[in-house]
Amino acid sequence: MGDVIGDIRYAARVLGRNPLFTAVAVLTLALGIGANTAIFTLLDQVLLRLLPVKEPQQLALLTMRGRHYGNNWGGNAISYPMYRDFQDHNEVFSGMFCRFPTPVSLTFAGQAERVQAELVSGTYFSVLGVNAALGRTFTAEEDRVADGAPVVVLSYSYWRQRFAADPQILGRTLTVNRYPLTVVGVAQAGFDGVELGQSPKLFIPVMMQKEMLVVPQKMLTDRRSRWVNAFGRLKPGVTRTRAQASLQPFMHSMLEMEVREAAFAHASAYDREQFVKCTIELLPGSQGRSYVRQGLSTPLWVLMAITGVVLLIACANLANLLLARATGRQREIAVRMAIGASRGRIMRQLLVESLCLAALGAVTGLALAFWADKALMAVYLPADAGGLNISTAPDFRILLFTLAVTVVTGLIFGLVPAWQTTKPDVGRTLKDQAGAVVGGVHGRLRKTLVVTQVALSLLLLIGAGLFLRSLNNLSSLGPGFRADRLVGFKIDPSLGGYTPERAKIFYQQLTDSLGAIPGVQSVGMAAVRILEDDEWDSSVTVEGYNPARPDDHAEPYMNEISPNYFATLGVPSSPDATLPCRTIAR
């Protein structure tokens, strides 16, 4: 240990005597290591991390495959009755839970706000192994009676932000969608639900569906509505493949029962036949579920590969600089070897210098990574992406990654120069013939490194050019209408207790009020907001239509719109750039 500390002190003196070289090397490494750390920070939180729950590898997400007959609310969804049937008739799960994200209107202390909530089964927290930081979580008792569980659990972050971590919040009443709910607990710190991009502030029993989802369907008993995500925790020793095979017979029996229901009265023979062919599939549940993750997977891995190439270029550049610098150190090394220093001892000293450079570059790179991530989040994340909780501050995993990159980088750019530098002809070098010594192998190696740098740089330049060209094409393509003067927002008066009749009057008043604002050309409304990566699809049977083929099955994407919707979008013709702004409400 004493020798290593001595080597570090000596390396510090050597680098201090060459401030220009040290500054160039540190800056080069900082850019390479910082870029890798910045992208890995995002990649780790979006693609690699598991849910902060008990043994997340045992979780499985149930999803129905095949031709559904009915309506669908989101991906990987099954009906609530189907979830309860699986919960009561399986031999592969030690426990199951379901959930459904939804926005709600929260009123407390005279202040109302729209927040993200999650309807969850009473087994939600126990199956996940998530404890309460304050009070209690839900129990299976909350799943027994519809409308019989008027309680709520707060997320830890929302408890701190909205209620200033007040421990007296327990037992207080929150008005959610004009319905009183009693706070019974606060979830453990660090838990933000099971879906990236959906960070619930409130957890509400699914039995309160009628009060929280203002829809005409009785969702808790309707088998034609797929809306809940169902998760199961596999029993020890049970694989997903085995569990999936075990669930199929019961799944088939359920479908055979459902197809005889009155809801299939207008279904064709082909629809019935295809429906009973549906299967249940178990997906990995260790990371929950998220469309955001799917969309960001390829771009993040591509960026990680690009920054890796940048770091290789930096290593090649520094190796070349060290070889050039070795010219002035030949006599020093020859003297040390002449008085008895071994080649291994000198190589260790040179590698310590390289690692010191890498460490300085890593420290600077961490600061650059923190700044770069904040800039990326500010520029590329939408303003309403509050559910995507990504921290730009380095944690233990990021520091460990940076340490590994630092060590590997230091060895990559330092090992070959150290090996070549410690092979001098001591006698000739001490006779001031260093120029002859540093030729030959050193020259060929430096040329190889230059060729490598040029090749990698050319590859990056070509890739960057293609990337910029693709961005330009996408930006010029557009959505098919002028979006630059559109203003969109969400509104749902039913969350405030409006009946459908009152809501119609409210929407008309809102349309008239917005249209009267100076500069607003037109106003349109839609159930599904434009350009939001959202969908509403449902099976449709056209009365009197006989399909030409048995698989001619209508299952369109739909939207409810106001009469002036297309005119507000400027479809089909684009409005003149001088026209005033237009507004779209949801």
Verbal overview:
The structure is a single chain. With 586 residues, this protein is of the alpha/beta class. The chain folds into 3 domains: 2-49 and 292-475, no CATH class; 58-286, no CATH class; 486-585, no CATH class. Helix content is 47%, strand content 15%. The protein has 17 helices and 16 strands. The protein has helices at residues 2-16, 19-48, 80-88, 124-128, 156-163, 209-212, 240-258, 269-275, 291-326, 330-338, 343-380, 396-421, 426-430, 434-437, 441-477, 500-515, 565-569; strands spanning 59-65, 71-72, 93-108, 111-120, 132-135, 151-154, 173-176, 179-187, 202-205, 225-226, 229-234, 279-284, 486-489, 523-525, 537-538, 582-585. The strands form 3 sheets. Strands 3-4-9-6-8-7 form a 6-stranded mixed barrel. Helix 2 crosses helix 11 (343-380). It is elongated. It starts with a helix and ends with a strand. The model is unreliable at 433-439 and 577-583 (pLDDT under 50).
Name its key features.
586 residues; alpha/beta; 3 domains; 3-stranded mixed β-sheet; 17 helices; elongated
| Main sheet strand line-up | 3-4-9-6-8-7
Average pLDDT: 83
Largest sheet: 6 strands, mixed, barrel
Q: Supply the number of helical segments.
A: 17
The radius of gyration computed from the alpha-carbon positions, rounded to a whole number of angstroms, is 32 Å
SSE blueprint and pairings:
Elements: H1 2-16, H2 19-48, E1 59-65, E2 71-72, H3 80-88, E3 93-108, E4 111-120, H4 124-128, E5 132-135, E6 151-154, H5 156-163, E7 173-176, E8 179-187, E9 202-205, H6 209-212, E10 225-226, E11 229-234, H7 240-258, H8 269-275, E12 279-284, H9 291-326, H10 330-338, H11 343-380, H12 396-421, H13 426-430, H14 434-437, H15 441-477, E13 486-489, H16 500-515, E14 523-525, E15 537-538, H17 565-569, E16 582-585
Helix pairs in contact: 1-11, 2-9, 2-11, 2-12, 9-12, 9-15, 11-12
